[in-house]
Amino acid sequence: xxxxxxxxxxxxxxxxxxxxxxxxxxxxxxxxxxxxxxxxxxxxxxxxxxxxxxxxxxxxxxxxxxxxxxxxxxxxxxxxxxxxxxxxxxxxxxxxxxxxxxxxxxxxxxxxxxxxxxxxxxxxxxxxxxxxxxxxxxxxxxxxxxxxxxxxxxxxxxxxxxxxxxxxxxxxxxxxxxxxxxxxxxxxxxxxxxxxxxxxxxxxxxxxxxxxxxxxxxxxxxxxxxxxxxxxxxxxxxxxxxxxx
Length: 245
Ligand SMILES: NC(=O)c1ccc[n+]([C@@H]2O[C@H](COP(=O)([O-])OP(=O)(O)OC[C@H]3O[C@@H](n4cnc5c(N)ncnc54)[C@H](O)[C@@H]3O)[C@@H](O)[C@H]2O)c1
Known about the structure:
Distance between the termini: 33 Å
Shape: globular
Radius of gyration: 17 Å
CATH topology: Rossmann fold
Number of strands: 7
Number of domains: 1
CATH superfamily: NAD(P)-binding Rossmann-like Domain
CATH class: Alpha Beta
Low-confidence stretches: none
Bound molecules: nicotinamide-adenine-dinucleotide
Strand order of the largest sheet: 3-2-1-4-5-6-7
Order of helices and strands: EHEHEHEHEHEHHHE
Structural class: alpha/beta
Mean pLDDT: 98
Largest sheet: 7 strands, parallel
Number of helices: 8
Helix content: 40-55%
């Protein structure tokens, strides 16, 4: 029960890392409010674990996030997992695609933090965990131009919040996964010209020769959300099977 008495908002909780993390948080005793734009999949999560509360929330919609934050009550931890992978180089990335990735990957983190921080500050304690990526300012990955750019921005975002509120009981840390076997990753593999080869290439880039399971990312999330990591803030935590060795 490493998260007993903690009230946690999880975004992007309908599938992949967010889903595994919502389940893991609940198992550790947290009160979990799982949010996503995919209500059908949130309902599936709820039927798997009825202790998890679910809420439709578009983390890129200012009015929705503001309303959610003003009605949700006291929150101890925000785990923010919303993200989108655009495939391609700078020349494959139109202005619309550029702004779309900034909106989903960076603006969503801004909105969630902007509206949840004030009540955390009122409590003089709060904890924000952002899902970034090894593909960022840490590692240049082919065909991840705008994705890597937005994840590098999130790494700066985490450090800025950590620095501004370190004296106010607020912590902010990032998780930087390598390749994780999630439904959206499967989708990207299946879109490749040669999905069999694409799968092999994704696996090979991790020195450990395998992908991460979402549950392995959730283990790191439990640590960062719990008081065990009380002395950590502004940290960028790689969990990449040796991709960046
Ligand atoms: N899968 C990987 O290999 C990998 C590696 C590194 C980092 N990440 C990051 O981890 C996070 C989760 O990735 P994943 O692969 O587990 O997830 P995923 O792509 O499988 O699922 C993402 C979830 O986000 C939800 N979502 C999308 N837009 C939203 C919005 N505007 N508001 C609320 N919810 C929204 C989707 O409905 C979906 O349930 C992302 O930020 C991703 O960039 C993933």
